[in-house]
Specification:
This protein has helices at 2-41, 62-68, 72-76, 80-83, 88-102, 145-172, 177-180; strands at residues 46-50, 57-60, 104-113, 119-131, 134-143. By secondary structure, it is of the alpha+beta class.
């Protein structure tokens, strides 16, 4: 009886120690989850998680919500045709396939349709990874709309300058105005 009583006390002590360890680990897990959520949602870059099998958006951070105008709840019910106009839906899916094949991919000028209907060009960089137990594509979006518009404007101005240069060369060669026009 004395031996059984002693064994019961030892087992009770071990059980209490294990319970304290479990509680401490549970607290650490809550802190770690909170830290990860804080990092994700307060990052200065727009971040996203995508299901690699069908390309659907699983989650976005606060910066992506602000950039695109959709809430994380909206994202789950959003079709890719709404988010990516025209051929950009195919470009997005092609990017996801590339990431599945190589583990990494990027797209310099992917067009997004924001919730208000306006368009945004985003530079997307993404990798294959994990979100808990689920395989996902995770990445970031940088707004390059201004750069795309400036590049287009520069291209247009270059064409105009090339035309003016051609006209000036022909005038310098002494060609008649009627043939020049």
């Amino acid at each position: 009886a004395w031996r059984s009583d002693r064994q019961a006390r030892v087992l009770t002590h071990r059980l209490a120690a294990e319970e304290k360890t479990r509680e401490k680990l549970a607290e650490e897990l809550v802190v770690a989850r909170s830290r990860c959520e804080q990092i994700l949602h307060h990052a200065s870059d727009a971040m996203f998680f995508v299901d690699p099998h069908d390309g659907t958006l699983l989650e976005v951070n606060r910066r992506a919500e602000e950039m695109l105008g959709y809430t994380c709840g909206d994202i789950h019910h959003l079709s890719l045709g709404v988010l990516f106009p025209g051929r950009h839906r195919r470009r997005f899916l092609k990017l996801v396939r590339k990431i599945l094949k190589h583990g990494y991919g990027e797209e310099a000028e992917l067009l997004f349709r924001k919730k208000d209907g306006s368009l945004l060009y985003g530079a997307v960089q993404a990798r294959l990874g994990w979100l808990g137990e689920q395989r996902v594509v995770h990445g970031s979006i940088h707004d390059v709309t201004t750069n795309v518009h400036m590049t287009s404007e520069l291209r247009r101005h270059n064409q105009q300058l090339e035309l003016l240069n051609e006209i000036a060369q022909r005038v310098a060669k002494g060609q008649e105005i009627s043939s020049l026009l």
